[in-house]
Amino acid sequence: MKKILIVLAAAITIASCKEADKTADTTSSATATTTEATSTATATSTTTAAPQQNTVDPATLTKVEWLDGMDKDFGKIEEGKNLEVSFRFKNVGDKPLVISNVSASCGCTVPETPKKPYAPGETGVIKASFNSAGKSGAQAKQVNVFANLDPAMTTLNFRVEVKAKKS
After folding, report:
1. Spatial CB neighbours of 74, under 8 Å, sequence gap ≥ 6
2. Out of 64, 96, 102, 136, which could bridge 164 as a Cys pair, Cβ 3.0 to 4.6 Å?
3. pLDDT band at 59 (very low <50, low <70, confident <90, very high)
4. b/e 137-162 (16+ beta carbons within 10 angstroms → b)
5. Where would I find the H helices in the chain?
6. How confident is the model at residue 166 (pLDDT cuts 50, 70, 90)?
7. pLDDT score for 7
8. Which helix (H) or strand (E) holds 74?
9. Model pLDDT, residue 57
10. Which residue has the higher pLDDT, 28 or 61?
């Protein structure tokens, strides 16, 4: 009986050691790969840092007029409803307006980024959808527009009062 227990203990110990070796090999290989990738990324970012900067050529800058203003109050909505917001604009500069990105201050607001450039004198709309599910009370949200403007980021604000669902 003792012999069986000793053999069993030895087998478990050997199996544990082999598993630990596999884990160590995997971990060291993953660490080496991560270190190699980080070194490569660092070397790449060091050599290409200048072109990747988010600078806009001053010769391409234009101007925008926000036709309905940059701050809106949408009053009251019931919790769980989606609110479609829009901000109308006009390119009042002399260069095409290129909107590179539109982002929101939180996940409950989903903006749309216009795909086309806007010629001087042309109008357009920045749209976003606000999901009021799980929200109640006064809500203040921001939509950030990145374009060939000075400054490059414009913040549009909207407010809404979300009335809690009645149980």
Report:
1. 83, 85, 158, 159, 160
2. 136
3. confident
4. eebebebebbbbbeeeebebebebeb
5. 2-52
6. confident
7. 54
8. strand 71-78
9. 78
10. 61
Integer-rounded Cα radius of gyration of the chain: 28
Asked if residue 73 lies in contact with residue 120, where contact means CB atoms within 8 angstroms, the answer is no
In whole angstroms, give the CA distance from residue 155 to residue 136: 23
Q: What mean pLDDT do residues 144-155 have?
A: 96
- With CA atoms as reference, report the closest residue to 154 among 111, 115, 94: 111
Q: What span, in angstroms and rounded, lies between the C-alpha atoms of 90 and 119? A: 9
- Tell me the sheet residues that pair with 132: none
Pairing mode, if any, of strands 137-147 and 99-104?
antiparallel
